[in-house]
Amino acid sequence: MGDRLRLAIGVMGNVASLLLYSAPIFTFARVIKRKSTEEYSCVPYIIALLNCLLYTWYGLPIKVVVILIPVILAFGIISATSAFMIHNHHQRKAFVGSVGVVASAAMYGSPLVAVKQVMQTKSVEFMPFHLSFFSFLASSLWLVYGLLGHDLFIASPNFVGSPLGILQLVLYCMYRKRGIAEVPNKLDVVQNDHKSTQLEIMVTEDTKEKT
């Protein structure tokens, strides 16, 4: 029963994580549409990438051939150290897992960089709901999974991630009714300026004809 429950929680954790990592699609669509990153922070996405790389390495067997990944220098250093300097499987898991705990906690807390702006502007426009919700859902499921499997490297960061997810959702509920400030598109501003200039020219020409 215990193993089945842990397996079920693990499957749900994977689904929640997939939703978490898919959540920024809405933000990316808005950025592409407006051709601007506006006030969105890149920190959550960079740390999420680092966290994915670290936990991918954490789950690999000890005999897997090391492939240098130049995407992130930090991941390259950690993977090389654990592969070439730590030959004991348990020590390797302890090393990579410890770093993964820090990276995972940072990932779950990274959306909080927008909290100051949310409280100042009374707007949640730049703290996406989907990112906050799936962050809470994924961290809560992985917390239960880690506790059931007695794996502190999985459970520990989620002791931080789950409460931080709740905090983000509370802030969203507090300020979501305040409305979202619409930022005019740069192209629209240019077009409006162009139309205003044309109108002024037409008015000037009409005035000259009448005089």
TrEMBL record:
Bilayer-crossing regions: 6-28, 40-58, 64-86, 126-148, 154-175
Keywords: Membrane, Repeat, Sugar transport, Transmembrane, Transmembrane helix, Transport
InterPro entries listed in its UniProt record: SWEET, SWEET_rpt
Gene Ontology cellular component terms for the protein in this record: endomembrane system; membrane
A GO biological-process term: protein homooligomerization
Mode of membrane association: Multi-pass membrane protein
Record PANTHER family: BIDIRECTIONAL SUGAR TRANSPORTER SWEET3 (PTHR10791:SF28), RAG1-ACTIVATING PROTEIN 1 (PTHR10791)
Family membership: Belongs to the SWEET sugar transporter family.
Protein name as it appears in the record: Bidirectional sugar transporter SWEET
Classification of source organism: Eukaryota, Viridiplantae, Streptophyta, Embryophyta, Tracheophyta
